[in-house]
Amino acid sequence: MRRAFVSVVLLLSAFLVVPASPAAAAPYCGLVWGSLDETAGDLWPSPIVNVRTGQHACYDRLVVDVAGDVGGYHVSYGRYLVNPGSGEATALRGGMVLQITVNNPAHDESYNPTYTPADPRELTNVSGYRTFRQVVFAGTYEGYTTIGLGVRARLPFRVFVLDGPGTWSRLVVDVAHRW
Prior knowledge:
Elements: H1 2-16, E1 38-41, E2 48-55, E3 59-66, E4 72-78, E5 81-82, E6 89-90, E7 96-102, E8 132-141, E9 144-151, E10 157-163, E11 169-176
Antiparallel strand pairs: 1-4, 2-3, 3-11, 4-7, 5-6, 7-9, 8-9, 10-11
């Protein structure tokens, strides 16, 4: 009788054990970024000298070159690019806009421009990119420079600063190709 009881208990406990839930899907390319606002640093006088883009296997990259230290930044998603000073909204190609405010001017201390793109509405050619749709220079207002990045959709991104070359530094914005 005792063996029968133990056998029944073991059999029932096998059915009562909750199976482990399946593992969550691995993050795309191992990226664990999010899509919420990113902010760091203060205003700094080192001027912006260039904006460039590149493609990588898992993300598209925007780089802002600064002749000195990057003061800081604020990067956030929106439906439109909000132009500094006027507050006017500008639509960009893509489903969403990443508004990138760099805490550095695009001019030197004598207000001579240090970054004058040939076409402010098309800073770089991003046709063929998986995520980027348009890169726009909105200008500098009170020492802060605004760049609009039209992207395919609201996708994970990261923002960081790299030192070099020399005394220069770079603000980097990577946007994943997908979640």
